[in-house]
Input
Amino acid sequence: MRGLPIVAIFMILSFSICPVAADSSIEMRGGGSVVMEQATATWCDVCASHESWISPMVESNGERLIRVSLHSSINDPLGNEASKFRRNWLGHTDSDPTPIYHFDGVRENTPSSSRGELQRSLLDAEGDRLSHESLDVSIIFESSSVFIEAIIDDPIKKNGTIMTLMLLKSEASINPEDATNGLLTSHSVLQQIVMIGENTSSIYPVGWATGTIDYEIGIKANFSFEWPNGMDKNSTTIVVIHEEENANSGHTTLSALSWNVIASEQESNSSLWPAVVGIGVIIAGLAYKSQRKLR
Output
């Protein structure tokens, strides 16, 4: 019975240390990822045939590539305001054929009939980044509220650029009756978007978040929102992009990074267990010594 209080203390410490996901923060530094945006649809047979090699290609490239699926707003249950806006911003509409791939905002030139062609487009996009900038992002969770700060101390370009925030559903399920192309899941589906610049502010769905941008010293963007209804943190990826829309040169991504919410929370929790075990060992050692003295 003497060991019972020790076990109780150890359990209390374990449960008090591990639940950091409800109110937590994370800091990231990066920016070198290429953004691949894919215009797709649940009725697109060609899109379904591509999926067998797109998913392995995306996975094999890791942080080099950020995938964003932009679903059609016509007869597609995964279509939404954010995807429709972003597709129009990229310069095409629902009447265009699918799939269409954009790497760092630039429409791909190849037929995209193989994994090798998409990999080549990724290499070309990386080569077009003549300069690199560092993007520092901090994300704070306070209950259902989220606050994101993105800072670029030495931007490649300031004037006319835009800071973009995206929320993606990492894996979205499709009802069999709606999946006419046979695919029952879609990956990295755009759900919410904020694009803010010096003279522009686009938020879809309207009013879901707020954003401000400051160009005085480098670039600093702040986003805040309540966690959207219907979005599961276990299947959400947050994307931050610094990009440019130019009437002459089109669209350009200057830096980008992404963060998978649940994967990082699991990593954070698992990293705490060594500390919990260490505390347990110390408590057990102290208890053992005290019991020997009592004897």
